[in-house]
Design brief:
By secondary structure, this protein is α/β, with parallel strands linked by helices. It has helices spanning about 5-10, 30-45, 50-55, 60-80, 120-125, 130-135, 140-150, 180-220, and strands at about 15, 90, 95, 100-105, 110-115, 155-160, 170-175. A hairpin with a 4-residue loop joins strand 4 (about 100-105) and strand 5.
């Protein structure tokens, strides 16, 4: 559940968890991207009030919210590092992210997943490289890359945690190092999304001015 502060800061921005929807391998925005970008535009046009409409809760999200702090603690103890909880990082007027943790000692980030279905944890357990993660769960791959882009940090430790499994493999850590070639790709997709947002808002405002002018003329006549 988003805090009131995070809602205000992230409203009207493309965020890390949803960035995968904007990514297109063919260089053209997909229907999935356009649907999501209209949600961002709605947040802008309603001053963030529409965020509440898109919020949802389920057993899976409740499970993740319950075990994320535990996973963060287990990771910190295992790695012997201090992990700080993150606040929303605004990259620009149209982009930002909220990582699940910050490791200031070596300029890192933490992204935590606590799968509600253990089978999904096992799939993530087999991901040994960022490319494996991209093939297995592209949403998570692009979420991590977008976080690196927005924060300028050196790496993200992506972790999957399932307390129901054997202690030997209940915690899986996959390090994703910053790659400037990937950052350029992120920027390309982000710019395409931002341009769509700007152009659509401009069309809405232009149409509104026409309506306003017509109403005024009718009143005058």
């Amino acid at each position: 559940m988003l805090s009131a502060e995070n809602k205000q800061m992230r409203g009207g921005k493309i965020t890390a968890s949803q960035f995968w929807k904007v990514v297109s391998l063919k260089g053209k925005l997909t229907e999935t991207a356009i649907t999501y970008l209209y949600e961002v535009i709605a947040e802008i046009m309603t001053n963030g009030l529409s965020i509440d409409t898109n919020e949802f809760s389920s057993r899976a999200t409740d499970w993740g919210n319950e075990y994320e702090p535990i996973a963060r603690k287990v990771y910190a103890e295992y790695k012997g590092v201090e992990v700080k909880e993150s606040k929303f990082t605004e990259h620009s007027l149209y982009a930002g992210c909220t990582p699940d943790g910050e490791i200031d000692a070596d300029n890192g980030l933490l992204e935590i997943k606590c799968p509600y279905v253990s089978a999904n944890h096992l799939k993530l357990l087999l991901c040994e490289t960022p490319e494996d993660l991209l093939k297995t769960k592209k949403e998570y791959y692009w979420q991590c890359q977008f976080q690196l882009y927005c924060t300028g940090r050196s790496y993200v430790d992506f972790i999957s945690y399932d307390p129901r499994t054997n202690p030997l493999y209940c915690l899986h850590i996959l390090r994703i190092n910053r790659d400037e070639a990937v950052m350029q790709e992120v920027e390309k997709h982000l710019q395409a999304g931002v341009e769509f947002i700007k152009e659509t808002i401009n069309q809405i405002l232009t149409k509104n001015k026409k309506y306003e002018k017509a109403i005024k003329e009718k009143r005058i006549n």
